[in-house]
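Troubleshooting log. The previous structure file for this entry was overwritten by mistake, so regenerating from the original sequence record. Sequence copied from the archived sheet and checked twice against the printout by T.R.
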Amino acid sequence: VPFPSEYWDSLQIYKDRKEFCELVLNFVIDKPHMWCSYPKEMSELLFVLDKDHPSIFTLRSIMATQFKTCFECIYYYHKKKEEYEIQNPENVPIFLQALHQQDQERLTLCLSSFPIEPIHITFILFEILNYPDLLESETLDEKFTQLILHLLTTQLEINLADRVPGLYVLLVHHEAGVRFWTGKILKSLGPISQKDDYERIYPVIEKCMQILEYDIFESITNGSHVKMPCPFTSSRKDFWGGINVLLQSFDQNIFKEDLLNSFPDLIDLVLNNLSGDLDIFSNSINCTITLMNVLGHELWLRTSFPPKLVRETIMSQCLLASQENVHLQCFKLLVTFLHTLEDFEDFIASLDAIVLFLLEKVELESRTFTELSKGVAKQHAFSIINEGYKHSPPRIPVDSTGLWSILALGVVSSESITSAEAATNLVRSIIEHDINSLKQAFYNCVSKDKKVHNQIKPRWCIAFWESLLESPHL
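Regenerated output below.
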């Protein structure tokens, strides 16, 4: 039904009059979709009504009912609020704050009437997750948390096909159940690959980065009056856990071209966090692995941290940690770290250091590492060296050949379960390489080509062969 022209004409002249407000309200009150049918008129009506006007309560009651059944009404309402903010910046602090508070009260009331019809839940979630600033209200956040935990308990499936900003806020929510529910939803949506999706959630990422950069957690720990804004968690550990899920939510192009260009300090924030408290070390490792997998060697071109410092930090933190799962994460991180250095001069030095750490240091720290951890450390070390044999010439830790070659042979002979396959593959590579080198050396000796005579002599694992020839398992 078209909005009567005479009403609109009256609006321009008498918009401050109670009679006009009631006239307009009487026209729209029985319409099933006020905001999506008459967005311009409704915004004018809403924005001229005083917050204490008696008609405002009727209007907001109707809105609360209609917003439970119409996505477009919700969209147009909030869109008009955003337009008003842009057009009337001088009135924003007072007027929009009042509207914002009324929206929070309306949604809190909706969430207070359990049980809620599943269809109504979808519309409530749509509004809150598209406009997550609403959760700044602790009262609304409390009711919203109860709703999410209810969904988690009852396993009620809610279809959220869009990457709405609120989902990414909930990654760092103070309630573990909410973070878990959100992680499941985001996993089903897949990685962010469109620039439009990134721009929608940019304000959320920006707020998260500000919290990390200003280290609000430290201020809270020191007992200052700083308070974490609702609904964010005040736990540094949980916050970094959410950041890790956030980093995994982007495809490679969006990660490099948008996220890192918007927040160039992100890499340094993550790497610096490796040296933080041990209770957040596990999440720091996961974030670092995500960065290294996405960026590869580019990581070192975008950070002020030298590889040696990062490597030593990982190793020292690994020795201080007492949990087996953290040790296993560290070993995985060291392998990923090494792959990022394959094009740099630091590679061989890091290769030597990491192999010695995994085979020697871990073995000596008997009280720190479990037998499983020691076995996994050997497995990683043998696999790293075996990969080096695939290069020509091999890129292997030459200075410690006597250590790792004999250890590999010993593991094969003892049939260790954890690292037996990796050790067997390495022993096979050693034998194949050295036999081929022997053939080449023999050819060099008998060749009449002077260029062949002057070739660099091959290196063989002498200690390995001596040990192998003495082995009863030969």
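The radius of gyration is 32 Å. Archived copy saved in two places this time.
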